[in-house]
Amino acid sequence: MNAASTVIPLPPQPSLPVVGETGVYPVRRIWCVGRNYLEHIREMGNDERAPPFFFAKHADMLVADGATIPYPPLTKDLHHEVELIVAMKSGGLNIPAEKALDHVYGYAVGIDLTRRDLQLASRKKERPWEIGKSFDYSAPCSAIQPASKIGHPTAGKIWLTVNGKETQKGDLTELIWNVPEIIWQLSQQVKLAAGDIIMTGTPAGVSQLQVGDKLECGVDGVGTLKVSIGEPE
């Protein structure tokens, strides 16, 4: 397909930079794991015995490192959730956990921005979470570190600061489901493919954001990410 064969202009291809590469990583889909750190489950008052589950964001909701993000509409309770991101280089259905890492291209650091008031209202009405999770600029993400250079991290601090004050802190060892298990479970639900990224869940310490806040976050051995919250559009 090219621009001459479409009745409207082709939308841009969402992508992420790759550390040490001139080429970019094209993003196909964004998948997110809910409730994958025990302390975050407890702070949100959820059943810690329930298994994590998956929801999606659209690829064009990605935000680059260093960006200023407009405060989103319809909410008065915007929260941050720092996460390890897994970037796939291949995929399939029903990928066994023991072969899952063969399909991973690399890793990054992301923030699952959440309109918490809208998410909780939807949950009470037993409605989908999209209004609280899937909105413009809701998926800030760092450059990808290829697994060929850093391996597959299983331990290391994951953290986030707001205006220099640490609000979230955890360790990858605290993931309830590890990366191979996440890929195995998600690939039973959908056919994964190259270009899919997976946000693997957030540790405790989520908090409300205001216009003017400056966020910095990171995962040891993977990278860091900085964004700011700006005025509404």
From TrEMBL:
It is an enzyme of class 3 (hydrolase). Keywords: Hydrolase, Metal-binding. Signal peptide: none annotated. The keyword Hydrolase applies. Its EC number is 3.7.1.20. Residues 30-227 form the Fumarylacetoacetase-like C-terminal domain. The keyword rRNA processing does not apply. One of its GO terms (molecular function) is acetylpyruvate hydrolase activity. This is Fumarylpyruvate hydrolase. The lineage of its organism: Bacteria, Pseudomonadati, Pseudomonadota, Alphaproteobacteria, Hyphomicrobiales.
